[in-house]
Amino acid sequence: MPLVALTGGIGSGKSTIARRLAEHGAVIVDADAIVRDVQSPGSPVLSRIADAFGAHLIGAGGVLDRAGLGSIVFGDDEARARLNAIVHPAVQRESARRFADAFAADPAAVVVYDVPLLVEARVEDPWDLVVVADAPAPVRARRLVELRGMSVADADARIAAQVSDERRREVADIVIDTSGTLDRTLSQTDALWRRLASSTTSGASDALGSGGR
After folding, report:
1. Is 210 flagged in the annotation as binding?
2. What's 65's DSSP letter?
3. Contacts of 39 (CB under 8 A, 6+ apart)
4. 1-26+110-207 with 38-107: one CATH topology?
5. What angle, 0 to 180 degrees and rounded to 10, lies between the N-to-C axes of helices 44-53 and 66-73?
6. What pLDDT digit, counting tens, does each position of 174-194 carry?
7. pTM listed for this prediction
8. Which positions does UniProt annotate for ATP binding (predicted)?
């Protein structure tokens, strides 16, 4: 029953790895989806966001204006810290509940937490394995421009606003190099799955080991 954290910078291919692991049978818990859920209309988190950043951020139907909130906190460390103090505890509680539900449904499950902000918020959690999707910043910037339609300046700014690649690699037990072809990324992910699957029969701590941390 390994509990795996999967992280990586924007444009790193982390979602590709998560999809492949799901195809193999992993239970994927998506941190971004949880953030949206805890900020749903009428939620205590949404109310606190409105109090902290302005009721104008709540649009028709009580829905959060995510783009508007992003424009407030992007590039403002103090504002981002205030937002994280509101959102992160709720996300942590909800993710823990989903992990527990997954293992209750199948004690042998491989549960993967797809989490962008692992280093910033969750690195000390009791993960059996930390997996980092890794590609150089210029490669990720090109993907953001070509695949998401961002401007070069916006792509570079988004990457610069995140924690460094070096800090992610420091906490990694496994690094998946996503800078090459899709087939190469999938091959590395398949090898990871074989390691994870073996841990369900031999015990997570023995099969996974302590990695590089």
Report:
1. no
2. -
3. 45, 46, 49, 64, 87
4. yes
5. 50
6. 999 999 999 999 999 999 999
7. 0.89
8. 11-16
Domain boundaries, the chain: 1-26+110-207, 38-107
pLDDT in tens, 102-148: 999 999 999 999 999 999 888 888 999 999 999 999 999 999 999 99
**11 in a known ligand binding site:** yes
Residue 16 labelled as part of a binding site: yes
**Cα distance between residue 92 and residue 94, in whole Å:** 6
Per DSSP, helices labelled H in the chain are 14-24, 31-38, 44-53, 66-73, 77-105, 137-148, 152-161, 165-171, 182-202, 204-208
Residues 6+ apart with CB under 8 A from 33: none
The reply, when asked if residue 149 is annotated as ligand binding, is no
Side chain identity, residue 211? G
Which CATH number is associated with domain 38-107? Answer: 3.40.50.300
Find how far residue 1's CA is from the centre of its chain.
20
